[in-house]
């Protein structure tokens, strides 16, 4: 599950970007307006732009956690907490959203991190390589 969680986060990101681009009613209008300063003052454009850009934060969480798993073999618990910190308020403020996916992935990430941590404590402690 440790290696699967980052991939699922990246997959959720792909869905997020697809929804942002397919459901958008303003990207064409912004392109016609020349893009420069095409968002301020238009609440629909602001919403859609922030929705799209938020996907990059989610992508960063997925790819960085994937790198950490690759390098250490362990999933950081922070990933789960970050996903929950995004998903729970989103579920409360905007119930019809992708928040349940974030919450589910956050819980799964915490479970995987806990299992990784428990497995690590049963192993031989690493050799201290710190030299001042």
Order of helices and strands: HHHHH
What assembly state would you assign to the polypeptide chains in this entry? single chain
Terminal CA distance reads 37 Å
Number of separate strands: 0
Give the averaged pLDDT, no decimals: 86
Shape: elongated
Residue share in helices? over 70%
Structural class assignment: mainly alpha
Measured by DSSP, the beta-strand proportion falls in under 5%
Q: Care to describe what's here?
A:
There is one protein chain. The chain is mainly alpha-helical. The chain has five helices and no strands. α1 (4-22) packs antiparallel against α3. The longest helix has 30 residues, at 43-72. It is elongated, with a radius of gyration of 19 Å. The two termini are 37 Å apart. 17% of the residues are buried.
Key traits:
132 residues; elongated; 5 helices; mainly alpha; single chain
Q: Topology, please?
A:
Elements: H1 4-22, H2 27-32, H3 43-72, H4 77-93, H5 99-122
Helix pairs in contact: 1-3, 1-5, 4-5
């Amino acid at each position: 599950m440790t290696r699967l969680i980052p991939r699922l986060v990246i997959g959720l990101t792909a869905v997020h970007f697809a929804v942002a681009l397919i459901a958008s009613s303003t990207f064409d209008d912004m392109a016609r307006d020349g893009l420069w300063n095409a968002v301020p003052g238009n609440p629909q454009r602001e919403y859609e732009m922030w929705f799209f850009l938020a996907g990059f934060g989610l992508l960063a969480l997925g790819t960085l956690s994937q790198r950490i798993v690759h390098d250490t073999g362990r999933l950081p618990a922070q990933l789960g907490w970050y996903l929950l910190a995004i998903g729970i308020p989103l579920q409360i403020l905007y119930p019809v959203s992708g928040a349940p996916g974030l919450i589910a992935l956050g819980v799964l990430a915490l479970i995987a991190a806990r299992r990784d941590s428990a497995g690590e404590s049963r192993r031989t402690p690493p050799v201290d390589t710190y030299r001042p």
